[in-house]
C-alpha cells in the first residue's frame, strides 16, 4: 500500500481530565486520528470541580491572610481604635461572589481546552465511554426524548483517564447541604459558621486552612498525631503551628466514626465517644478510582484490590493496546503526573522517543498558607529504602533569610537531601509562601543529578528567597 493511502493510527481517550487531554493533544500533534470521550466537560473534575476551583479558593484565602499579616509590616487594613485594635472588620468576604468567580473561571478554562483540542483536529464526544474489548470503546450519548444512543469507536490504542471521586462513608453520607465532599463546597453562599473538616491529609488541610482564613470557625479532626502525615515531619509541624496561630482547633488522634445532621447543623461522633457540633462538615477521607463499569477486566486489564488500574512507567496496562493515566491508576495522584502519563502513553504507543516516568523526580505541593513544596527523596522514602545513613540533609530556616524578613514570611525553611559520597542532590523540601514557585530549581537539580556544589555555584539574586537554596547547598560542601 502506498504511503498516501496508509490509515492513520486511531486513538480513543476515555476522560478529558489532565491525563486524557494531554494524551489527545499529543496524539493529534503526532498525526493520529483521535477521539476523546468526556461526560462532563474537557478538563474533567480537575478543572471543573477540583484543582482549578480549589486552588483558586485557596489563593483568595491567601490574599485575605496577606492583608491580615501586613499589619506586622506597618500596613493597617483597618481603622484602629485607641488601643490599636480594629474598630471595624479588617476585611469582608463575599463567598457567593468568590464561588461564582471560581466556577466561571473553571468553565472558561474548560472551554479553552476544548478549543485547543478541536484546533488540532481531535474529535470530542460528550458521553459515557467504556471498553468493548481491547480495541474499541462503546459510547453512550443522550438521544431525543430522554433516550440513549450508542456509538462504537474502534481504536488501535485506548487511553483510560477517568480520574477518581471523593470517598464516601456510609456513616457520613454527603448531602450537599450540611455534609460535603470537596466537589460540593462551591454552592455555599456564605462562610460556614463552624466547619468541621474530617481528614488531615492534603485536601483536608488545604480546605481547613482556606475556610479558617476566610472567617469560619474550623475544627480539623485528624486521626493521626500530626496533620499532613504523608509530608516531611518538620514541614507538617510548621503548618500545624500556623493552623493553631490563626485559631483553628486541631483535634489530633481523633477518628470520626459518624457524621449526622441535626436541626441546625451537624454532629460528628468520634471513636472514643466524644462529639463535636458544627454548622457544616467537609469529608476529606480520600478518593476512589472511577473504574467500575468500564469493562476493564473483560478487556484484560489488571486492577489492584482498591480498583486502581495497574500501569508501568510508560502508562501501559497489562493489555498492550490499552494505556491509563491519572488518578484512576496506581501511580502518583497528581494532575502534573497525569499529564505526563498521558503524553508518555501516546509517545510510547506511536513509537516516539519516551523516557519512563520516575516518581522520585516529581515535584508536589500542598497549597496551605505557607505552602509545602517537595521533590525527590525525603526522610520517609530514605528510611523506607534503608538509605537514610547514606544521605546528608541541611536545613536553612527562613528567619535567617533577608528577603523573608523583609516580607514578614519567616516561619518556614529550605531543606536539601544529598548523597554523602557524591554530594548529588536527591531531594528537597521548601516551606514558604509560594513554595510551589521556588521548588523548580531543586526539581532541576534532582532531574539532572546536580551536586550541592553545582547548585551552590549558581548565582541567586540578593536578597531573594531562592538565596536560601544556594545557602543550604553551600553549607553541604565537602572536600
Could you characterize the architecture of this molecule?
It is a single chain. The chain is of the alpha/beta class. The chain folds into three domains: 8-47 and 102-165 and 288-359, FAD/NAD(P)-binding domain (3-Layer(bba) Sandwich); 168-285, FAD/NAD(P)-binding domain; 370-475, Enolase-like, domain 1 (2-Layer Sandwich). The protein is 29% helix and 23% strand. The chain contains 13 helices and 23 strands. It has helices at 18-29, 44-48, 51-69, 95-119, 202-213, 233-245, 335-349, 379-384, 402-407, 435-438, 440-447, 452-457, 467-475; strands at 10-14, 33-38, 123-126, 128-131, 136-142, 148-154, 157-160, 164-166, 179-180, 194-198, 217-221, 249-251, 256-261, 266-270, 275-278, 280-283, 287-289, 322-324, 363-366, 371-376, 391-397, 413-419, 425-432. A hairpin with a 4-residue loop joins strand 4 (128-131) and strand 5 (136-142). Helix 1 (18-29) packs parallel to helix 7 (335-349) and helix 3 packs across helix 5 (202-213). The N and C termini lie far apart (65 Å). The mean pLDDT is 93. Belongs to the class-I pyridine nucleotide-disulfide oxidoreductase family. Pfam families: Pyr_redox_2, Pyr_redox_dim. Residues 10-342 form the FAD/NAD(P)-binding domain. InterPro entries: FAD/NAD-bd_sf (IPR036188), FAD/NAD-binding_dom (IPR023753), FAD/NAD-linked_Rdtase_dimer_sf (IPR016156), Pyr_nuc-diS_OxRdtase (IPR001100), Pyr_nucl-diS_OxRdtase_dimer (IPR004099). Keywords: FAD, Flavoprotein, NAD, Nucleotide-binding, Oxidoreductase.
Amino acid at each position: 500500500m502506498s504511503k498516501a493511502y496508509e490509515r492513520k493510527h486511531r486513538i480513543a481517550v476515555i476522560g478529558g481530565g489532565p491525563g486524557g487531554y494531554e494524551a489527545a493533544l499529543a496524539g493529534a500533534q503526532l498525526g493520529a486520528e483521535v477521539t476523546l470521550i468526556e461526560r462532563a466537560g474537557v478538563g474533567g473534575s480537575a478543572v471543573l470541580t477540583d484543582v482549578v476551583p480549589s486552588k483558586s479558593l485557596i489563593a483568595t484565602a491567601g490574599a485575605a491572610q496577606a492583608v491580615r499579616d501586613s499589619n506586622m509590616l506597618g500596613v493597617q487594613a483597618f481603622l484602629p481604635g485607641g488601643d490599636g485594635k480594629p474598630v471595624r472588620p479588617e476585611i469582608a468576604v463575599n463567598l457567593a461572589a468568590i464561588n461564582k468567580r471560581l466556577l466561571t473561571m473553571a468553565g472558561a478554562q474548560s472551554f479553552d481546552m476544548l478549543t485547543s483540542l478541536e484546533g488540532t483536529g481531535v474529535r470530542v464526544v460528550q458521553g459515557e465511554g467504556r471498553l468493548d474489548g481491547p480495541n474499541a470503546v462503546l459510547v453512550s450519548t443522550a438521544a431525543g426524548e430522554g433516550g440513549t444512543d450508542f456509538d462504537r469507536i474502534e481504536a488501535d490504542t485506548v487511553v483510560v483517564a477517568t480520574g477518581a471521586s471523593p470517598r464516601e462513608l456510609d456513616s457520613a453520607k454527603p448531602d450537599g447541604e450540611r455534609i460535603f465532599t470537596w466537589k460540593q463546597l462551591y454552592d455555599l453562599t456564605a462562610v460556614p459558621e463552624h466547619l468541621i473538616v474530617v481528614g488531615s491529609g492534603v485536601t483536608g488541610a488545604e480546605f481547613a486552612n482556606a475556610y479558617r482564613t476566610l472567617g469560619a470557625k474550623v475544627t480539623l479532626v485528624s486521626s493521626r498525631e500530626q496533620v499532613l502525615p504523608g509530608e516531611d515531619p518538620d514541614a507538617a509541624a510548621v503548618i500545624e503551628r500556623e493552623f493553631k496561630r490563626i485559631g483553628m482547633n486541631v483535634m489530633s488522634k481523633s477518628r470520626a466514626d459518624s457524621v449526622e445532621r441535626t436541626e441546625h447543623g451537624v454532629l460528628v461522633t468520634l471513636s472514643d465517644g466524644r462529639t463535636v457540633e458544627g454548622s457544616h462538615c467537609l469529608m476529606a477521607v480520600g478518593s476512589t478510582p472511577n473504574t467500575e463499569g468500564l469493562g476493564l477486566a473483560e478487556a484484560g486489564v489488571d486492577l489492584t484490590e482498591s480498583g486502581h488500574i495497574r500501569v508501568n512507567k510508560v502508562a501501559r496496562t497489562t493489555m498492550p493496546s490499552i494505556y491509563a493515566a491519572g488518578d484512576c491508576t496506581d501511580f502518583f495522584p497528581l494532575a502534573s503526573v497525569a499529564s505526563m502519563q498521558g503524553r508518555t502513553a501516546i509517545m510510547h504507543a506511536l513509537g516516539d522517543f519516551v523516557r519512563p516516568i520516575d516518581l522520585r523526580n516529581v515535584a508536589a505541593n500542598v497549597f496551605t498558607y505557607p505552602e509545602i513544596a517537595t521533590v525527590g527523596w525525603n526522610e520517609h522514602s530514605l528510611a523506607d529504602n534503608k538509605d537514610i545513613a547514606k544521605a546528608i540533609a541541611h536545613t536553612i530556616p527562613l528567619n535567617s533569610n533577608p528577603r523573608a524578613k523583609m516580607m514578614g514570611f519567616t516561619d518556614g525553611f529550605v531543606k536539601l537531601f544529598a548523597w554523602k559520597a557524591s554530594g548529588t542532590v536527591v531531594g528537597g523540601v521548601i516551606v514558604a509562601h509560594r513554595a510551589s514557585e521556588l521548588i523548580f530549581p531543586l526539581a532541576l537539580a534532582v532531574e539532572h543529578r546536580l551536586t550541592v556544589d553545582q547548585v551552590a555555584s549558581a548565582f541567586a539574586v540578593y536578597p531573594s528567597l531562592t538565596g536560601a537554596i544556594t545557602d543550604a547547598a553551600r553549607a553541604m560542601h565537602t572536600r
